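The instructor's notes for this session suggest beginning with a concrete chain rather than abstract definitions. Hand out the sequence below and ask the class to guess, before any prediction is shown, which regions might be ordered.
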Amino acid sequence: MKEYHLFKPMIDVEASANEIVGVIKSGFINEGLQVVELTRRIQDILDTDQVILVNSCTSALTLALKLAGIGHGDDVVTTSMTCVATNMPIKHVGGNIVWADVNPMTGMLTPDTICAALTDKTKAVLVVLWAGNCPQIKEIYDICKEKEIKLIIDAAHGFLAEFDGEQIHRFSDYTCYSFQAIKHFTTGDGGALVCNSEDDFLKSKKMKWFGLDRDRAKDEKGNWKGQQWDVDIDTYGYKFNMNNISAAIGLANIDKAREALGIHRENASHLDSMFSGVDFANPLQKVPGENGSSWVYTVILDNGLAIHRDKILERVNAEGVKAGVVHVPNHHYTCFKEEMVNLPGVDLFFSRQISLPCGWWLSKEDMFEIFSIFTRCVREICD
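After discussion, reveal the predicted structure:
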């Protein structure tokens, strides 16, 4: 029986191994030449100079929150329908989580749910691109600018996602990308922060490494210019930098990032066409102007099928389609008990959502087979 996996990293094994060996033989494993070169490549692909590479998207989110001025007593409006990595950094920097509800047909925040959650202590809004799809991001950004609130995008699922023909980071103050093992493009683990303002970008370069801007102390190849005994550190920072081993993996695979993304989008389009003919499940609603990255393909079961969701998943998985729910609503976790709240949109979305594979490793024929297995299993369980 063929298996259709939900996740699979796109890694050129031989090229990655050669790059890693080169790093190890060089004797310089930490941040250096490879990180410098990968930064340039990511700047090119994201079409912005204001990119820093970090060791995870979680680190990028932490930097974004600090740059946004979040500290003790400050409110951050955010979504519960995401990985816990989105929201734990809010608590770590001392902020208060204020949950906003989602559209149950997209799984994402809306301008209305955000406005309903704003308080007089709100300093930032944190929006997630569910499965790589885009919310009403331009309208949300306009609201934040009007109210002088910082907008942070968690684009862990959304590398190279676009809105109105522009990279998604054009519509935020801070955008955080993930290069973790199962994303479109991987460095094994890692991420990137894109800052809208140059001032924030310069601050982030310091904050990623104990408050010291290492780039100013290095040449264009990433080598130290000399001893740095007289360098001052004027701000607190973290140990969030990417290392050369992770960057080496990235360099070996970055040329295939757009190719992988294109296949994800094409496969999602095939599923869109097929699901348009069924009455028991719907693709996520799309926002006009969005061109998401289709990390996975999420469908929403009809209301009456929600009670069968887990049985459907069990049967589909047994048939070789490794479908899943990807993330659990954060407000259900005990660690967030202080922020317990009723979120009917989140609960409705979660109870009905199933994510199917649509990745680069799958063909159009695979998409048809995945659809056929899924629809057959649903009918067998529910008829």
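Then share the key points. The radius of gyration is 21 Å. Residues 257-275 form the longest helix (19 residues).
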